[in-house]
Amino acid sequence: MNNQRVSATLFTALAFTGIALAAGDAAASGVIVCNNCNSVAQAAKQGGDGLVIVTDFPNKKIWGFRNEYDRETGQFFPRPVSIPASIVDSHNNTMTMTDPAKAQITIRQNDPGSNAFPFPAGFEGWNAHHIATDTNMRGQFAHALAAHYTGATTSSNLWNNLTVSLKSLALGWLGTTGRFEFVTVTVFWSDGSRTVMTIDKDDVTTMDYVPGQSFDSEGNRIPDYSIGRGSGDEYVGNYQFSNEDGLNEWLYAASQYGIPITGTRSKRMSCSWDGRTLSCHYY
């Protein structure tokens, strides 16, 4: 059978046994949806050669198999295998999100024990300013954060690809049940600054940066590209900085997005929006 496609006949036949293939992409990827499953092993056979994950979303279960082709019968024989812990943990975390409030996740760089999923390594010394002002750094972190959220951090590309497909299908299923359309992740960096990102079923290999929602450690909103999209009103108000480093980081962000600042330099300023331009003044 060509696993890139699921024929109407096969789809109908599987439906009668409790097996629901979530489009050809699910079959091709080796992830089979079998909600309220009557025969997990039978479902696994439809995943093609090699590693397969069978998932039952309503019952929050997943099973791993390795399909081996039997030349005598012309069918696949599924042998149970252990699914990597990062994938199991990620799936369990997602399936416990029973309402929009639980789709709001907070992770802290300096408090790994409290996190729902691991904070990506390799970003020591970074903060919300880097993500708000540097496109490349933002993209790098967005992909790493998504990989850790989906559990695609194993040493096997096959397992990583499977968990990406599984996560997309899981978020899609949760969306159809009316629970939520996306997951929001608020990232607290070691310096206390924060970044907000989201992930949805359409692309779980990266996270989307939420513009206008980055703050430094003192609660000052960090300028980003949202200003150029007409959202400068979110930045109206007073800003205070306790040290020169914090002020300099904010000024750099302001220069990146063309925010004029007037007056005698100090650690306090006020910003206003005229409908087109955000401007700030030291006081």
From TrEMBL:
Name of the protein in question: Secreted protein
Domain of life: Bacteria
Signal peptide as annotated in the record: 1-22
UniProt keywords, alphabetically: Signal
